[in-house]
Structure formats: structure tokens, C-alpha cells
Amino acid sequence: MSAIESPCILVCAMDDKTGYCFGCGRTRAEIGSWLTMTPEGRRAVMAELPARLATVERRPRRETRRTRMARERDGTSS
To answer: Whole-prediction pTM value?
Structure first.
């Protein structure tokens, strides 16, 4: 059995605005049907991923204690 190429980078969270995964850029439907897609179908999706990922709004990382303390010390708000 040969390995199936996948764009998954194990960052599995969906952007609610675009419907694309933050990590790979695929939709839920594409992720769910990836193993049953033809190689040509997978290649077609993979060709679209760079453009899709450019439209995904990156969520800010969770605020750490250090950044919160610095913000409070400086009197700024986020």
C-alpha cells in the first residue's frame, strides 16, 4: 500500500470566516473525503491551498502571563 500525500500539518482548527483549516487550508468536506479522493482530485485541491491559506485570518495566540503583565504595566489595552 502506498502512502497518500497530505497537506496536513496537525494544526487542525477551522477558520469560521473562510471555512478553511488554519493548518492546511482544506475544507471540512475535503478533509473528510481525502482518503477516497482520486490522486488527481487531491492534486487539484493541493494546488489551491497556498491561495486559500493567504485568505485565512490567523488567530492571535493566547495571551501569556508575561504579555498580560507587560500590557498592564504599560497601561495599554489589547
So the answer is: 0.70
